[in-house]
Amino acid sequence: MKLYSFGPGANSLKPLLALYEKELEFESVFLNPAKFEHHSDWYKKLNPNGQVPALEHNGKIVTESTVICEYLEDEFPDQNPLRPADNFERAQMRIWTKWVDEYFCWCVSTIGWHRMVGNMVKPLSDEEFEAMVDKVPIHEQKVKWRRAREGFPQDLLDEEMRKIGHSVKKLEARLKESKWLACDQYTLADICNFAIANGMQHGFPEFVNEKDTPAILDWLGRINDRPAAKKMFANQPSEFNRKKD
């Protein structure tokens, strides 16, 4: 089993943490986003969308981060389960994973692109940039790369920040009621939302802080303190601490 991913953050973190929580043996293949390795021809043969993460298992490729997590549960249901046995609680888990995929992830991602990702391509010449964009398989991603290079419109950034504020309030309200998001059990709902929320107290302190979101900070701390999370962060290479080749 191989997992192709960036470092342990955002969508790549979801299956990484699930694999560590389930204590499954796998080979980690790190793709460096600064070198656009996920747009390379060899990788697009594995995932034609040129996106990470992707799981290779028994000669087959599974893509989409949350789908990979569900696949691991289907293949290894008795190995440290991350899905509730109760069908109603499982449905609640999927409501939270659907929400993070369709709403929470996107607003945080846009701000991340604005603040960090665009800086990877701003130093490129127009010719170098167009050559890079030409390798991006998905039209919408090409548009996003161009926006990141040029700068996102302020009205769009303002709306995404509003959505982030709404998302934080939603998480805080739930975590004031329950130790974990879906039910009394730590599940994929927590892993998938943690992947996006972890570190927001540093990146978005106006929203996530001790005064306004004590329940979120407690939840983030408990997940970061889990042995699987500690092992993942210690073992997995990251684009932020990887030495330049």
TrEMBL record:
* Residue intervals of the GST C-terminal domain: 86-245
- What Pfam family does this protein match (any one)? GST_N
> Which ranges carry the GST N-terminal domain?
1-80
Please give the superkingdom of this protein's source.
Bacteria
Q: Which family does it belong to?
A: Belongs to the GST superfamily.
Q: This protein is called what? A: Glutathione S-transferase family protein
> Organism, per UniProt?
Hyphococcus aureus
